[in-house]
From TrEMBL:
InterPro entries: DUF8094. Residues 1-31 are annotated as: Disordered. This is DUF8094 domain-containing protein. It comes from Nonomuraea ferruginea. The lineage of its organism: Bacteria, Bacillati, Actinomycetota, Actinomycetes, Streptosporangiales. Residues 16-31 have a biased composition (Low complexity). It comes from the Bacteria.
Amino acid sequence: MALAGCSVLPGAGSEQAPSTAATETPTPAAAPVTAQEVASVLEDYVKRNNAANKAVSDKLLAGYEGGSSLAIDKAGYASLRKLGGRQAAYQPFGYTEPVHTVPVGPEGRWFLTTTHWKGKSETAKEPTYLLFTRDGESWKQVYAPDVFEGKAAELPEIVADASGTAEEVAHSDTAGLMMSPAAFAKSYAAHLVNKGTAASRTRFAADRLTTGAASNRVKMKEYAKVVESARPATAYPSYALRTADGGALAFTTLQRTIRYDVHQGPGRKYVFQKNNGFLRGKFYTYMKSTALIQVVAHIPPKTAEPAQVEVLGSYSGIISGSGR
């Protein structure tokens, strides 16, 4: 049975189908990020990204990416090389209509760009969030979730002044929120693999990731026993900004592992993963994969009215796999 592949080269402009360091203390005296600086960072990012993709170069990739973005895309390069692929016909891309938001808060120097991926002959309808953090003397892109189809008109407004400066929300902050960004990461990880309580499941609106995961379980039931686990990938920092409704726009990374134990008996069955170099061929006994999943979500304010957390977009990739 075919499973959806999720590792693609960075900048592909499409939402990834469900696959199968603690933040340093900031320097208080750090200068604020300027509008001119963020614009030049994005321009440099596009040039470096295109160069790395064309060469399928881990070294070039590490020059402009960090965090879970680097882990996902480095694995994507490794998968491509295992499949014998090269980027001889690579088409460069860019971004259009960028809007930059610079937070003021305890986590240090970072900024968020909301923009649209632009290829040679097409422009994405839904935006992409690009989150950059300061790494020594350079800037690294650490989050790049694509907004789900049809969600562009529903994105929450970020509270920012005329200069683009906004309020950062700490990972453990519960003030005025339905739940803290940290609680969201933990609860949503359980929800994604259908392990949350009935009460906790009502706290999340339906989204593309969870509905896709549920559909995959049903589809694969005929062929294999599916065992899933997920948790916040705490090695990668999370970030959040205050929204105009008093809620928060949160970015976090989850790690999900899926194992398929193939049903044995008459009519030999197998499973396989499409277009992934870590999982090549057919597996007649079991197949196991681990993926990193970046998600962006709107956490509503805490009010007397019923409300739900809404996951708005994601970026993901398989980082390891095995089977026989």
